[in-house]
Amino acid sequence: MSFVEFQGVSKSFGDTIAVEKLNIAIEKGEFFSLLGPSGCGKSTTLRMLAGFLPPSTGRISVHGRDITRLPPEARGIGIVFQNYAIFPHMNVFDNIAFGLVERGEQKTEIARKVDAALEQVGLSGYGGRFERELSGGQKQRVALARVLVIEPEILLLDEPLSALDKKMREEMKFWIKDIQNSIGITTIYVTHDQSEALTMSDRIAVMSNGRLLQVGSPREIYEQPSSRFIAEFIGESNLLDVRVTSVNGVSCEVDLGGSLTVPARCSKQVKLSPDERVSLLLRPEMLRLAPMDAQEAPRLKGRIADSVYQGALRRYRVIAGEHDFVVEVPNRPELAQLSSGDQVDVFWSTESGVVVP
Amino acid sequence: MGRASPLRLNWLLVVPLIIFFVIFFVIPVGLIFATSFNPQTIGQVSVTTDLTLDNYVRFFTRSSYLQAAGRSVMLAAIVSAVTLFVAYPMAFVIAKTEHPGRNTFLMILVLAAMQLDMVIRLYGMMVILGDNGLVNQMLIALGLTGPDDPVQFMYNFLGVVLGLVQFSLPFMILTLIGVIAGIDPSLEEAARSLGASRSRAFRRVILPASMPGILSGSLLVFALSISSYIVPALMGGFRVGVLPIHIFQQVAEGARFQFGATIAVILFLISAGAVAIYLHIGARRSGGLA
User: Fold this and answer.
1) Is the pTM for the entire model greater than 0.80?
2) ipTM > 0.90?
């Protein structure tokens, strides 16, 4: 049995279904992300786990204990909100002490724990400050300290980085991951930002329109998405309309049109049959305009339509017959700089082309 | 060609207000202030350069005026407290009602009380609270009081309190709704998930977060109550001698403008004192950085 389990959990508001028949199993100590566009039901899922919303149907359990009808204060689940929800009338010390006071702990014990928590989040000496005297990053540290000090079994993070600027976001991503690693707390992270989910998670659950689409490691989600939606939502993608010509286990052949057939990888979970119309996923960084080694045969002949210098990369748009590609090539001196109108061959290795239903 | 500075343009927008404020507030209040230092001359309205403290000495050496001042402050304080107590739950319900139709209905209910003139509303209250009023008829029917011994709701302190609470409720409710609706709902959720029950979360988070509304609502009601003349006059039947009643009696009945002005200045200073205390509390609550 998994640590956190959602069993057939649905939530509807009037006629709108926010979450539909959700089944998720999360292991102890895991960093688990709920990823999806806004309105996909990820926040509703988190709020049901926290106890702020009762599920319409289904069951949620932690450690095998049914918590579906338990009030939030009895769940032992800590949550960090998008806007941090720092109590504005209390200073940082009292904010962090809040949960300890509710647990009726001794004053000296509270002071010791709060000081330790402040040190853990790098805010020693900030105890007397108020919310309005803190920066976004500091507020987030306070919100996290306030939750961690009560040693919850599960940590919920509801888009905690979205209110920060880009540089701060990058920094906090690794900082949160470090803290999570060091205390090994089961963490459920809600985000619409695929790069956050990919960098931080052990596993990701992709949601859309209240349904769970795919659960897997960041690598599985990125490299073997189970649908066009996921392929497009996570990272950049070239999706070519192709027709399956033959299937043999996890390898198959697809027809790119113009009597050109190439081998491709297909997912174990998806059953394909010949003649089926599918998409061939080619990530921009998997494509080359010059061969890396002998086994990379030129797949398509095309013409550069557009070329953009991006520092570390050069980004080309290539038109090859009916197909339109984005190709990203590292900027290295030995690689030729191509410009619009140049004729090119597009290369990719067999494993990097993935069939997506 | 120079551009008009936006700052200067902004100042122009305030000019009508300043003119209005000077003509209808600064000058009259200034004249009352000046009049209060003129020697008492029955029937004289105009301000003279003859200055004296006699009126103030008279006020502070007569126990009846000091008692009236005390009564006024107590009345305003009691009305503020009672109004707050009644208004908070109502404001809370309206602020937390998400259903738009229901919300509109509740707001109409609150605002309806402000649609009629105070005098008309007070006559309505008399029908309910008088010796033969609805409330007494009910009490008699229930056997809670004898038919010859009706409860005195009117023409006493209680009547004035009831009238002023009725008058103040919409102001308090509207002030509180604004503040309560502005409290981030995740504050309560954060408190709950940190281990606070619903009532603990209310006491430790919602109530302190609504304190700005409680303070400004109470101040508003305090100022409305302490300066009200019509309610003590009609509901108290001139038997509850608060400062506005005394001002009226000095000016309208005795034509003693100078002493009336003195009482008015003192009433004004009491109100200003309440504002000062409020600002002080407000500043301290927000950590001295208001």
Assistant:
1) yes
2) no
